[in-house]
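*** Backbone structure tokens ***
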Amino acid sequence: TRAGRWPKPDDWRALAEGTDTLALRTVYQGHAMETWLAEGGSTRTAAEARAWLGQSPPAVVEATLALRVERPDPSHVASLLRTDHAADLPNRMKNGLLLRLMQENPAQARAAFSESGAAGWVDAGKLGNALRGQDQGELQAWLRLLPEPEQRQELLRHLILPEAHPKSPEELARLAGDALAFGVDGESAAVALLTDRARPLAPHLPDVFASWPPDVQARTRLEMAVGLANRSPDVAAEIWMDATPEELAQPGAGVVAEDIAVRLLQRDPEVGSAWIRQLPPGESRDRAVARMIERTAREDPATCAEWAATIVDPAARARADAALRKAPPVTLTQ
């Protein structure tokens, strides 16, 4: 480069031959082969490439050939990925070989990957792109193979769960469990699975949610109720009824209870009012009662006045009294 020209293939080969460091030799050999191939274009043959770097070329030469010169034989590519060969290859080459093999023979790619030892080298994003469109069985097989939690999380959150449409409560519980295995980082993915992609299984959601560890339920109940309130308020109401006092004291809990009450009252006023009666005292119940009074004060002001008398939260009580003042005259209970 200092001489005003880019290094030639022979320059890289000389560097490779002049170093005793395996990692550097592998890099230099890769550059030598790639520049040699680039100079020759499509006229280079595999035999010429092997002869150019000697009769016993290292794994990096064979990998470069598989990626750049010839349509690779799947068995040959698989052999390059196995432990004794892959140790000599840069990660980018191993990922390239894996993706080429997946194009030719996905089952053989999995087998070679599982035999490649500690496969921390895999690029989960590229693997996900290669797996896009595969059935859930193939995706789950790869999920079980990936050794690193970060790799599994990448595949699960960005490919498996977005494409998942569970057909049974058991499959739903298994997929949610896969997400929860990643700890707090997987909890939102599990909630999204239940609230967005399991609509046909709505009656089973409370049981699936109840099977989660209590601490996970405590962290996600609010998010679950928000996600279900519009489309499945009855399911959201059932899940919300098991909230602990600590969960009911969370910021936003009163808003959630109010939203559920609104949807239930719209569908069936009797069901909605029965659910509100079961709520424990506190802001959630007060807000739900205030919303019910706002909706029904004109039809039944006397009953609404009795309900208003149970409200402790000042803001909710003010809303209820304002609604009653617009209703037919009735004596307010203080």
Remarks:
- The chain has 22 helices and no strands.
- The longest helix spans residues 22-40.
- The CA atoms of residues 196 and 297 lie 35 Å apart.
